[in-house]
Each structure stands twice: as structure tokens, then as C-alpha cells.
UniProtKB/TrEMBL annotation:
Cofactor: Zn(2+)
EC number per UniProt: 3.4.11.2
Entry's family note: Belongs to the peptidase M1 family.
Protein name: Aminopeptidase N
Signal peptide bounds: 1-23
GO-annotated biological processes: proteolysis
Organism taxonomic ancestry: Bacteria, Bacillati, Actinomycetota, Actinomycetes, Kitasatosporales
Species in which this protein is naturally found: Streptomyces katrae
Key words of the record: Hydrolase, Metal-binding, Metalloprotease, Protease, Signal, Zinc
Length: 499
């Protein structure tokens, strides 16, 4: 995964932005939502409940034209507010009236409506725009991936600014209708259910609906020439997968993995509870990158994930995020462990189910193979820093922490926690501490010290298998650990968040 690099100058500038605490009743909305890692992400002062994106894309030229309609509610009286966006805007209307606008910072769009927004009132914001997403760059880089037959928006922590204006932070989730017009013979893939598809005068329009709250970075757009497969789960959820026609030798392995989406989701429901969204699927475009991403209802997979044959483990990881990450989202990007620790742990549970090594064996191996002096142990999964947001320690040490919890509270309580949490906090935002308190409540055990050790204390803590029975003597010196059968397969997904 590309890490978002914040140039020191940008950081300094954003810290210097002073919001005038004027005595006037209307104020300007903050240019950031308050994220400690990414001060410019999101915006203050309002909340978006729905995005309606009506887009047209020409693969030959990379020109994206759009009208975005945002249903917003002001959280305070606002004389001005910000959107996050990078493409060229031609017009903005707020409640039907033309608004003034200006750009600032890396991706800020400052909107001054004709009439100030009133606290608690809904306001409709319409933004008309056009541009080539590949030409918009932040620190020399574009999240938009051009392909020989189209383009892809799938990145974390942000990709939205390359294709639609938004309040770009997981704290402000919304429902989405995404409609894309592309030349006949080209497909447009996005989140949720394909409501309809119509052709007219050489263009085909795809209408997608994601009807549950969705973070902006989990909205995705894939335009290109795809083979599409459709199916339904036993409970009636529509499954739609899309594969670039240009996957070469990876085509078979990609299908042999992603076509198991329904099966994997059914198993995950047995561990995490009811699937939280209206559709399932995945897509594999012809991109040269190596990562995968949990884009809501329809994860993105790079073809390279399938270079060694089928890779169901990466499907398990991205689908686990639908519960841990997409439905229950971070409050601040520093809470990334609530996403990645659990997605990695789900891969260990799948291995356990498949008889390829238990989660305890995988945790032990992850622990034993990293000596105490390995810098791996210096990263705190509970607050890794923006530069280490997707460090291997957030995944592996983060998952060992979950195994340590399991060993502490026992399987019955552990699986009760694992299944209860996504229901308890469905469609919300959480801090690491919220999970700790929930686990304490369900297990009726104090766990602050365990999590403090595993998530917040640099250095290699003690770790071992639990005693066989309460009261039984601790296991004799552990026999030399053996590499679990699934270890290399899971390790091969370590680049899911690497370029
Ligand atoms: Zn992940």
C-alpha cells in the first residue's frame, strides 16, 4: 500500500491554519476532521449522508466528467466549508444557488455558499467537474491507476480526491449511488448492487448502489474490459466478480480464488456474525501493483496476488475487513489495528479450519521467527505512526495480540467477542480502547495490561501456549516450533498493503 507521505511543509502549513473563533454566529468549517496522522483529511463542520455520483469516462483519453450531489447536514452554522478534491471544478451550487469556490493545500476545495448553512439543516451540494485523474498528483503521485483499457480508483488511506469531491475520512460515512457512462464494450465496476445497465448511442451506463454507510476510501471505481460472473449466496445476496480480460497467466488462479467469495463469506459469518452489506464480490483489473484492498462489498485484488496459484487467504483477509474495517471503521487512522489485526487473524483462523496450522501455531511462529532485536518489535500496533500505518507489525504483532487475548479469556468468550463486536458497533467508528473495554465486558476480566503490553509497549513481550487446563502445570519447555503449513501462503499476502 502506498503510504500517504505528508511533506513537512504541508504539515506545518495545515497546523498554522487558524480557524477564527469569531463572535459571529457563522464560522468557517475546519479544513481537516481532526485526524492525528493526516491533519488535512476530511473536513470539519458538516456531515455527508449520501453521495450521488453521475460520471462519464473515456478510457482513450482518461477524461472523467462528473456531477456529484452531496446530501449534507451542517453541524454548526457555516459561512464556508471545505471539500477534499483534486480535479477541476466548473460549478458548485449549494441549495440550488451558485457558490463561490477556491482551492488550497494539497486537495482542499473551499466552498462559500450564497447563504450560510444553518446548523442542523440539510444542504444539497452539487459539484460539476472534469479532469484526467492520472494528471492530478499529490507529492508527485496519483492514486489513480491507468490500465491499457481504463482506470482504477482503489487506495488507502485515500483515493477519493482523484475522482469525487467528499469529506474524505472514515469518520464521515455515507450511502452511495454511483452511475458511470462508458463506451460500449467497456465495463464500469463499483460498490454494491448493479441496479441497472443501459446502452444508448454507443455508450453504456452502469448504475451501482451501496445502501449502507461507506467510508470514502472504500468507494471504488474500475473501468476496463472485464469478464463478469454473477451468482447468489444461499441467503440470497448477489455476488458479482469482475476479471480483466487481460490477466494472462494469472487468469485461472484469480478465478480459482475470487470465485470462492461466497464460500469464504459464509464461513466468516459463522465467526463474525451476519454479513453487513447488500452485495458480495471482488474484481481483478490488469494493474501492475501488488496490493489488495477491502473496497466495500467488492474488494480490489492485484493480479500479482495470484502469481503463485490460487490465493484464498487474501480473499479471506479482504472479506474479513467487510466486518472489521468497513462496517466497524477506525475513528482515527491511528486505530488501524482494529482493521488489520483482525483481518490478519482471520487468515490464521481460516488456516486453523483448513488444518494447515492453528492460530496459536501461526502466532508462535510469527513470534519465534523474529528475534528481540528485530525492529519489528519497536512498532506499536495500537499507534504505529503514519509512516508505519501498514507495517508488518500492525498485522502480525497485532494478530499475536488477538491470540494472546484468546489464550487469556478462553475460546468460548473469545469467539463471543469476535462475533459480538461487529454487531455491537455495526456501521460505526471505533478506537482501539473501545475494543479493549468491550472484551473486558464480555470476558469479565481486566485486559488493559495485556493490550498495553501487546499494542502500546515497544519491545518483544513474553508469549507462549496456554496451559492445557486451568490448574494444570504450564507446558514443559516448548518443543521447537515447526513452520505451519499455511505460513508461506499467508506471508505471501504481506504485500497486500505494499506497492
Ligand atoms: Zn488489510
Amino acid at each position: 500500500m502506498y503510504r500517504k507521505v505528508i511533506a513537512p511543509s504541508v504539515l506545518a502549513a495545515s497546523l498554522l491554519l487558524v480557524i477564527p473563533a469569531s463572535a459571529a454566529s457563522s464560522v468557517q468549517g475546519a479544513p481537516g476532521i481532526g485526524d492525528s496522522y493526516y491533519p488535512e483529511s476530511g473536513n470539519g463542520g458538516y456531515d455527508v449522508s449520501h453521495y450521488d455520483l453521475r460520471l462519464q469516462y473515456q478510457p482513450k483519453t482518461d477524461l472523467l466528467e462528473g456531477t456529484a450531489t452531496l446530501l449534507t447536514t451542517a453541524k454548526q452554522d457555516l459561512s464556508r466549508f471545505n471539500l477534499d478534491f483534486g480535479l477541476k471544478v466548473s460549478e458548485i451550487r449549494v441549495n440550488g444557488a451558485k457558490a463561490k469556490f477556491a482551492t488550497s493545500g494539497a486537495h482542499e476545495l473551499e466552498v462559500t455558499p450564497a447563504q450560510p448553512l444553518a446548523k442542523g439543516k440539510q444542504a444539497t451540494v452539487v459539484v460539476k467537474y472534469a479532469g484526467k485523474p492520472s494528471e492530478f498528483k499529490i507529492d508527485g503521485w496519483s492514486a489513480w491507476q491507468r490500465t491499457p483499457d481504463g482506470g482504477i480508483a482503489a487506495q488507502e488511506p485515500d483515493s477519493a480526491v482523484w475522482w469525487f469531491p467528499s469529506n474524505d475520512h472514515p469518520l464521515d460515512k455515507a450511502t452511495f449511488d454511483i452511475s458511470i457512462n462508458v463506451p460500449d464494450g467497456t465495463q464500469a465496476i463499483s460498490n454494491g448492487v448493479l441496479q441497472s445497465q443501459t446502452s444508448k448511442l454507443g455508450w453504456t451506463r452502469y448504475n451501482w448502489r451501496s445502501n449502507k454507510p461507506q467510508a470514502t476510501y472504500l468507494a471504488t471505481l474500475a473501468i476496463g474490459k472485464f469478464d463478469i460472473t454473477t451468482d447468489k449466496t444461499a441467503s440470497g445476496l448477489p455476488i458479482l466478480n469482475a476479471y480483466s480480460k487481460d490477466l494472462g497467466d494469472n487468469a485461472g488462479a484469480a478465478r480459482a480464488s475470487v470465485e470462492r467469495t461466497g464460500e469464504v463469506a459464509e464461513w466468516l459469518e459463522s465467526v463474525f456474525g451476519p454479513y453487513p452489506f447488500n452485495a458480495l464480490g471482488g474484481y481483478v483489473p490488469n494493474v501492475p501493483t501488488g496490493f489488495a484492498l477491502e473496497t466495500q462489498t467488492r474488494p480490489f485484488y492485484s493480479p500479482r496476488q495470484f502469481a503463485n496459484g490460487a490465493n484464498v487467504s487474501v480473499v479471506v483477509h479482504e472479506l474479513a475487513h467487510q466486518w472489521y474495517g468497513d462496517s466497524v471503521s477506525v475513528d482515527n487512522w491511528k486505530d488501524i489495528w482494529v482493521n488489520e489485526g483482525f483481518a490478519r487473524y482471520s487468515q490464521w483462523l481460516w488456516s486453523e479450519k483448513e488444518g494447515e496450522g492453528t492460530a496459536q501455531e501461526l502466532a508462535q511462529w510469527a513470534y519465534d521467527t523474529r528475534p528481540a532485536e528485530d525492529p519489528f518489535w519497536q512498532v506499536k500496533p495500537g499507534d504505529p505512526g503514519a509512516e508505519n500505518q501498514f507495517h508488518g507489525a500492525v498485522y502480525d504483532r497485532g494478530a499475536i495480540a488477538i491470540q494472546a487475548l484468546r489464550n487469556e479469556v478462553g475460546d468460548e468468550k473469545f469467539f463471543q467477542i469476535l462475533k459480538g463486536w461487529p454487531t455491537e458497533r455495526a456501521y460505526g467508528n471505533v478506537k482501539v480502547g473501545d475494543f479493549v473495554r468491550y472484551a473486558e465486558k464480555i470476558s469479565n476480566k481486566p485486559l488493559a495490561q495485556l493490550f498495553d503490553t501487546w499494542l502500546y509497549t515497544p519491545g518483544k513481550p513474553a508469549f507462549g501456549a496456554p496451559a492445557a487446563k486451568p490448574g494444570a502445570r504450564a507446558q514443559a519447555p516448548a518443543k521447537p516450533a515447526v513452520e505451519p503449513k499455511s505460513w508461506k501462503k499467508i506471508a505471501a499476502t504481506n504485500n497486500i498493503h505494499e506497492h
